[in-house]
Specification:
single chain, MetI-like fold, 2 domains, 14 helices, disordered C terminus
Length: about 290
């Protein structure tokens, strides 16, 4: 056996060992990500006493159907919880804010990426700087602003601010810099298309992977949002699912089976949204990370 064959086999063995290590690490972190959801779904099939007695990583096979019905019945009989109402409020706020976030962020990123104007770099720097400011810092000023505008106690404070989403603008702008050919825009202009037509009919289809990626992130963030709705939504009929689930905790008695089945029900829309958009998410992340 020649020295070249030995080196080739050694290199192949190193690559195989590295690949195996990568798979092990990926599987490990995948299991870590799945465990909380698995734990939540399993607890939804047990009664409160059993849940408090120990960790349950398996369903209640002996009384699966009966216990799920009992937990859901207890949940439905609570005056502070209405799945239909909470779902309606959550879906109205989430879908509206996600649509505004995706469209106007794409429009902003398109303007910064395509047009060459004075102060473009400064504007983008400001957008990146705003990304560093946490929501909790400006919530007091935002609360007073919404109060002065008479919007407290309505859904609008959770929908309208979604128009300004610096994280989404940053991601889509980076995506456009690597994926959008300016020759296409010039061709559309030569054909007589106006700027909004060019953006809506020519550029938006190119942005679909990036829009889907940011759409699911925006959907998740808005659906799971607890901090802002807990401050801004004062009326019971406007509360979202996360708020209603949080109100299931009692001072004297807490039915954990009902809480876990409520949490499980609130997670299903997220799983469905991810199932439909996951291929676009992968495309968006991979395309946005490649520099031509």
């Amino acid at each position: 056996m020649s020295s070249n064959d030995v080196k080739l086999r050694s290199k192949s063995g190193s690559i195989a060992a590295y690949s195996a290590l990568v798979y092990i690490v990926v599987i490990f972190f995948a299991i870590l990500a799945i465990i909380p959801f698995w734990y939540m779904f399993m607890n939804a099939t047990w009664d409160s006493y059993s849940i408090q007695s120990g960790i349950k990583l398996w369903p209640n096979f002996a009384h699966l159907g009966e216990q799920v019905k009992a937990n859901w019945a207890y949940l439905s009989n609570r005056s502070t919880f209405s799945f239909a109402l909470g779902f309606k409020n959550s879906i109205l706020i989430t879908v509206s804010s996600t649509a505004l976030t995706v469209y106007f962020s794409a429009l902003t990123a398109y303007g910064i990426s395509v047009y060459d104007f004075k102060g473009r770099k400064l504007i983008f720097t400001i957008i990146v700087g705003v990304m560093m400011v946490p929501t909790a810092v400006n919530i007091t000023g935002f609360y007073r602003l919404m109060g002065s505008m008479g919007l407290l106690g309505t859904r609008w404070p959770l929908i309208l601010p979604a128009i300004a989403a610096p994280n989404t603008v940053f991601f889509i702008k980076q995506y456009l810099d690597t994926s959008l050919s300016k020759e296409i825009i010039e061709a559309a202009r030569i054909d007589g298309a106006n700027e909004f037509y060019t953006f809506n009919r020519v550029c938006l289809p190119i942005m679909v992977p990036a829009l889907a990626t940011q759409g699911i992130f925006s959907f998740l963030g808005s659906w799971n949002n607890f901090f802002a709705p807990s401050i801004l939504l004062t009326k019971q009929e406007l509360k979202t699912l996360p708020l209603m689930v949080s109100m299931l905790y009692g001072d004297r008695y807490t039915d954990y089976g009902a809480i876990y089945i409520g949490l499980s029900a609130s997670v299903f829309p997220i799983i469905i949204a991810y199932a439909f958009l996951q291929r676009y998410i992968i495309q968006g992340v991979s395309a946005g990370g490649v520099k031509e």
